[in-house]
């Protein structure tokens, strides 16, 4: 899922941000319409759900490394391609810490 995050000069970079998931790229864990909360930080590990910027486009994916140490952004839905990060200009903008689906909250503690 591509992500659009507009800068807000009134928010601190330390504050969490809420986004609505649009699409099924990250289903079933993150179905279309659910709300995710992410913290704007650059510390991340394989397995974390992240907001990343790749060549100027922002994505919501799971960060992974393969057995050779290559970094990937992985879509949970196998119908969508994974994004190999080797040779690309990329950075992690934040880590997902919470998912809300119809008032049911799930926290992600890494």
From TrEMBL:
CDD domains: S24_LexA-like. Residues 14-96 form the Peptidase S24/S26A/S26B/S26C domain. It comes from the Bacteria. This is S24 family peptidase. It comes from Thiospirillum jenense.
